[in-house]
Each structure stands twice: as structure tokens, then as C-alpha cells.
Amino acid sequence: MRQRIPVKRSNAAPEPARTQTRTQNPANNIQAATTNMKGRLLSTLRTVLPGAWIVPRDNELITLYRLRYKMAMEDEKYDIAMIFLNKILELDPMNLEAKLCKGDIYHRCLHDYPKAIEHYNKVIRLSTQDDTVHTRARAAMSEIMEMLS
User: What is the dihedral sign for C-alpha 87, 89, 91, 96?
Assistant: First the structure.
């Protein structure tokens, strides 16, 4: 049987009712705050930067890859430059500028003349005589032929 405890009653004004808060785990509070903050951040980003959620078009990727190619060439990282030229050619197999640049890397940087001649020949075959790419490829080919003779 339970024992009754006597309660003293006073004539003083009653204390305001306190809301009893549950003791929560601080980790749960942090996690809830983080989740809320992430949601607010994502909604703000979607509102402010709607283009950030759109998949880039091929011509935008080609521009980006061309920029990365130029950066790699400035750092003399020819293998990385070739990777970005190959990415350009995956998106646009008829990109003569990228084929010419590959030939230039083989010719001027890696001194692999047979591969350079192969790429220059592709550019010459695929381009018209009036094209500047055609002229540059022919000039590079004649330079290699003169050097090899």
C-alpha cells in the first residue's frame, strides 16, 4: 500500500504553471537543426541559383573542357590535356580544332611524329582548303616532313 504524504498549503499566491520539458539528447537537437538548415539552404539555392540544377549542354561542356585543356597545357601536363581533348571529341567527333590540338601535342610536346602525322592527316582530310585549321595542319605537316628529311 502506498503511503500518503501530507502537503502543506499556504495562503501565498500560487506559482505560475511550469511547462515540463522533456530532457532531449543534445545530439538529436544538433541533428534536427542541421537537417533544418540543409533544407533551408537547398531551397534558397534552388530559388537563387536555378541554373545550378540544370544539366549542362554539350557546347557548354566543350567550352569547359577547352578551358581545362588550356590550363593543363600551361602547367605542361600533356596527359591531362589529352584527356580533355578526348572528352571534347567524345561529345563532338568532328571537332577539327581538338584533333589539331592532339596533333600539336604529339608533335611539339611529346615528339611522337608518327602519331602527329596521323592526326594532321585526319584534319586535312576532314577540313576544306579554305579553313584555317586545314592551313595550320598542312603547315605543321610540312614542318615535320622538313625536320625528318
Answer: positive
| Per-residue confidence (pLDDT) for residue 56, from 0 to 100 | 75
Give residue 29's pLDDT. 65
Task: Note the pLDDT of residue 142.
Answer: 96
Q: What is the 3-state secondary structure (H, E, C) of 70-119?
A: HHHHHCCCHHHHHHHHHHHHHHCCCCHHHHHHHHHHHHHHCCCHHHHHHH
CATH number of the domain enclosing 112: 1.25.40.10
**5 is a domain residue:** no
Contact, 141 vs 124, CB < 8 A? yes
Neighbours of 70 (CB within 10 A): 13
- Domain hosting residue 128, numbered range: 58-148
Euclidean distance between CA atoms 29 and 23, whole angstroms = 11
Residue 138 backbone phi and psi in degrees, to 5: -65, -40
Mean pLDDT per block of 10 residues along the chain (149 residues) reads: 59 54 59 67 64 74 94 96 97 96 97 96 95 96 93
